[in-house]
Write a structure and sequence with these properties.
With 160 residues, this protein is mostly helical. The protein has three helices and no strands.
């Protein structure tokens, strides 16, 4: 009976030792699971905002058909609305960029996280720039269109 108890105690001690040796590995795994969960959740959170930026970028870089020049005022209104939408989303996008940069500080971050943060950061900057450039172009086109429509009247009044 005594030997079985001692032998059982030895087995229990060995089992406890084995579990104690596993604790650091389990803790590291828990940290990594949490980190990856945050990264994937962050990517999911970014998706609608990246799609929004892609839509604005598409409308800001699309060719302007010659037939649309007559409707330049409408195009200007649409572009101004796009810029207003961008401004309305600015705080959300800046917060997302900051949130991503905080997660990026983790030394064992996944590689895809950096690409996600870069995509929203550069996407914001590029989209804002292209949208402003398109508005400036449309305003210039509007001036030229107005001049073309009114040039005869201008010349006539200038002569008088």
């Amino acid at each position: 009976w005594y030997q079985r108890r001692v032998h059982g105690g030895d087995k229990l001690d060995a089992l406890i030792q084995k579990h104690e040796e596993l604790i650091p590995s389990v803790q590291k795994t828990a940290v990594m699971v949490d980190l990856y969960w945050k990264c994937y959740a962050y990517g999911d959170e970014l998706k609608p905002h990246v799609e929004f930026l892609d839509g604005i970028m598409l409308s800001s870089t699309r060719e302007i058909a010659p037939s649309c020049i007559e409707n330049v005022d409408e195009l200007i209104e649409r572009q101004e609305k796009s810029l207003q939408q961008l401004d309305a989303k600015r705080n959300v996008v800046v917060d997302l960029i900051d949130k991503g940069k905080v997660i990026l500080q983790h030394p064992e971050k996944p590689k895809f996280l950096e690409a996600n943060v870069k995509r929203i950061e550069e996407g914001w900057d590029d989209t804002k720039k292209k949208a402003q450039e398109r508005l400036q172009l449309l305003m210039k086109l509007g001036c030229f269109h107005w001049y073309a429509e009114n040039s005869e009247t201008i010349v006539t009044e200038f002569r008088n």
